[in-house]
Amino acid sequence: MPKTILVVDDDPDIIDMLKLYLDAEGYQTLEAYDGKEALAHLRSKHVDLALFDIMMPFIDGFQLLRMMRQDYKIPVILISAKNQELDKITGLKLGADDYVSKPFSPLEVMARIQAQLRRSYEFNELPEAPRVSDTCIGDLQLDHRECTLYIKGTPISLSAIEYKLLKLFMGEPGRVFTRKQIFEYAWDEHYLADDNAVMVQISRLRDKIEACPRKPVYIKTIRGLGYRFAKKDELQP
């Protein structure tokens, strides 16, 4: 199945040129002309690699990269007229996998795309693992093979962070997890005391699984401590 490349740049000529080369290599191309449009593609379509400029309207490349890395681990290549060393370091620290300065050779960009896809998808392929049992609590069924949630049999799309949060909570219903424990498990980074990322993701997750997010049944807030997931016997039949 051909890989899908998201190309984001406010210059239509650059997008047209890159699309021409991507099509010739057999890739599918998604086009966006600013950061907002790029986020919409990411949230609604499957993307294997993102290639985008830094200087863009509405949401610049650094902001887009920072927002992407909250939910997506796909390879990212930055392309920009900015060729200062600090800009490259900033992009890499924010989670970019590679950096190409304008003006660039389209053939070089194609080579870098192929290298990132090999590194991310081919080299990391694992042998097929035995089927892992689904986790079921109430109307929720978490499929660990497909990383998909089902509510009364209906599939619900999850981001990588949302899946990891549910896996953590549903794996130990009734246990209280602190924000620090949740953050370091889901993001695999050191927790910052003023970071509200956990609260934001819990809110998004409640919107997906709770009948009334303001009165949650599954994910309970334990004031001053953190969050806990309801036990099976706490849920109404």
TrEMBL record:
<dbReference type="InterPro" id="IPR001867">
    <property type="entry name" value="OmpR/PhoB-type_DNA-bd"/>
</dbReference>
<keyword id="KW-0902">Two-component regulatory system</keyword>
<keyword id="KW-0238">DNA-binding</keyword>
<keyword id="KW-0805">Transcription regulation</keyword>
<feature type="domain" description="Response regulatory">
    <location>
        <begin position="4"/>
        <end position="117"/>
    </location>
</feature>
<keyword id="KW-0597">Phosphoprotein</keyword>
<dbReference type="GO" id="GO:0003677">
    <property type="term" value="F:DNA binding"/>
</dbReference>
<dbReference type="Pfam" id="PF00072">
    <property type="entry name" value="Response_reg"/>
</dbReference>
<protein>
    <submittedName>
        <fullName>DNA-binding response OmpR family regulator</fullName>
    </submittedName>
</protein>
<dbReference type="Pfam" id="PF00486">
    <property type="entry name" value="Trans_reg_C"/>
</dbReference>
<keyword id="KW-0804">Transcription</keyword>
<feature type="domain" description="OmpR/PhoB-type">
    <location>
        <begin position="132"/>
        <end position="231"/>
    </location>
</feature>
<dbReference type="InterPro" id="IPR036388">
    <property type="entry name" value="WH-like_DNA-bd_sf"/>
</dbReference>
<dbReference type="InterPro" id="IPR039420">
    <property type="entry name" value="WalR-like"/>
</dbReference>
<feature type="modified residue" description="4-aspartylphosphate">
    <location>
        <position position="53"/>
    </location>
</feature>
<dbReference type="InterPro" id="IPR001789">
    <property type="entry name" value="Sig_transdc_resp-reg_receiver"/>
</dbReference>
<feature type="DNA-binding region" description="OmpR/PhoB-type">
    <location>
        <begin position="132"/>
        <end position="231"/>
    </location>
</feature>
<dbReference type="InterPro" id="IPR011006">
    <property type="entry name" value="CheY-like_superfamily"/>
</dbReference>
